[in-house]
Design goal:
It is a single chain. By secondary structure, this protein is α+β, with helices and mostly antiparallel strands. The chain is built from 3 helices and 7 strands. It has a 5-stranded antiparallel sheet, covered by helices on one side. Strands 2-7 form a two-stranded antiparallel ribbon.
């Protein structure tokens, strides 16, 4: 079975990924007629984990709004391995990877309660001005501040 674990190149001498992990059950509203989690819900599972990961690292939605920037997802990728079933416990792990670019790279791993791999994937977010909608190619001050704290090791969630 194919197992894609690393989507983004790991650069030497950069801070370790920031990680957030949570566990929960597959809910009735997330499954299809076969009682397996519908494939489109995996993006929602990624979003649940990435929202908390970014929030704890100073890049939450309120932080974006206060800084006058947006960070829309411009890429979303999912590799499916084993279906999650109704009422099954699972864990979602989100890992934010260091980059010097004006973007946020997050990899995801969904693991079933028995330890088997359900899905992996990634998202890429780019920055834009909230006022004009124009792309921000330079690293915005909000991300610069987060990167300084990350380099200093003062952000939670390290691996």
């Amino acid at each position: 079975m194919r197992r894609k674990k690393i989507y983004f190149k790991r650069e030497p001498n950069v801070p370790a990924p920031l990680v957030y992990t949570h566990s929960r059950r597959a809910r009735f509203g997330e499954v299809d007629a076969m009682a397996v989690v519908w494939h489109g819900h995996y993006a929602v599972l990624f979003e649940e984990a990435s929202t908390e990961l970014r929030r704890m690292s100073g890049l939450g939605y309120e932080d974006f709004f206060n800084a006058g920037v947006y960070a829309p997802i411009v890429q979303l990728h999912v590799d499916y391995f084993r279906s999650l079933e109704l009422d099954e416990m699972f864990t979602v792990k989100a890992s934010m990877l260091w980059t010097d670019a004006a973007r946020i790279n997050i990899e995801y791993k969904i693991t079933k309660e028995d330890g088997s791999l359900a899905a992996t994937g990634y998202t890429v977010q780019l920055f834009s001005s909230a006022a004009t909608g124009e792309p921000r190619f330079a690293v915005p001050p909000l991300l610069e501040k987060q990167q300084m704290l990350w380099k200093a090791g003062t952000l939670g969630g390290g691996e």
